[in-house]
Write a structure and sequence with these properties.
- The chain is an alpha/beta fold and 229 residues long.
- The chain has a single domain, classed as Rossmann fold, CATH 3.40.50.
- Helices cover 44% and strands 14% of the residues.
- The protein has 8 helices and 7 strands; from the N terminus they run βαβαααβαβαββαβα.
- A 5-stranded parallel β-sheet has the order 2-3-1-4-7, sandwiched between helices. A two-stranded antiparallel ribbon has the order 5-6.
- α2 crosses α3.
- The chain is globular and about 45 Å long.
- The structure holds adenosine-5'-diphosphate.
- Adenosine-5'-diphosphate (ADP) binds next to α2 and α3.
- Adenosine-5'-diphosphate binds next to α2 and α3.
Length: 229
């Protein structure tokens, strides 16, 4: 991809439908390029595991596959995103609705950072659904795996604490299709908004390639050094 940013951005928002591989990419960008991940999905699941006030109110939305209401996301942001903002931050899963777009702008102002790239990992719904059926999560520590893409050392067992892995409740077949529909409904206007309004820092990569190629394209798009092919 030739349209790379000349200076790697310190603050990035990554978009991709459920099953696009966005989160695995975000983890690798974090590990290899020093981004601290800000992941609303993981923060919400952690709140549910802690069974705190916020967790008890978000649980029902997560299990149904529906989005968590913007007001609860606002509370989550207030709780989690404290000044000073990390030097390099990668937003994964936020903003997820047009209602959350001004929320991000508000945090940019208040914490004194600005998004330097909106990066879209483009994958078709059919390919995304196929990938989702292989995902596993540790019910104890939250570590994520994929039976093909990122298998645990021992089948169905967490590498970190030995717990038996489970399907995420929102990866159950009956909610997988719903989550794709929700993505199409809510993310399309956000992507259109940034594609049109922030075109100089909006980038899209083809997420249906093998993972290494997607990762290399994402690095190039961000102006980061890509791994050798
Ligand atoms: P995925 O990207 O595969 O959907 P996530 O871990 O990002 O997985 O999100 C899991 C669930 O958490 C979503 O289906 C949604 O219910 C909820 N969620 C995460 N981020 C947000 C957000 N910014 N706004 C509303 N709901 C969210």
């Amino acid at each position: 991809m030739s349209n790379r940013l000349t200076v790697p951005p310190s603050h990035v928002v990554i978009f991709g439908r459920p099953g696009s591989g966005k989160s695995t990419l975000a983890e690798r960008l974090g590990a290899e390029h020093g981004y601290v991940l800000f992941r609303t999905g993981e923060l919400l699941r952690a709140a549910v595991r802690r069974d705190d006030f916020l967790g008890r109110r978000v649980e029902i939305h997560l299990a149904s596959g529906n989005l968590v209401p913007d007001q609860l996301i606002f509370e989550l942001m207030e709780q989690s995103l404290k000044a000073p903002a990390a030097e390099k931050l990668l937003f994964d899963g936020f903003p997820r609705t047009m209602g959350q777009v001004p929320l991000l702008e508000d945090f940019e102002r208040r914490l004194g950072f600005s998004i330097g790239c909106y990066l879209d990992i483009a994958v078709s719904p059919v390919a995304a659904i196929a990938r989702m059926t292989g995902r596993r999560v540790c019910p104890t520590c939250g570590a994520t795996y994929h039976i093909v893409g990122k298998p645990p050392k021992v089948a169905e067992t967490c590498d970190l604490d030995g717990s038996t892995l489970v399907n995420r409740t929102d990866d159950k077949p009956e909610v997988v299709a719903l989550r794709q529909q929700i993505f199409d409904e809510y993310a399309t206007p956000i992507l259109d908004h940034y594609r049109a309004g922030a075109s100089e820092i909006f980038r899209a990569v083809d997420g249906e390639q093998p993972f290494e190629a997607v990762y290399a394209d994402a690095c190039r798009a961000l102006g980061l050094e890509a791994p050798a092919a």
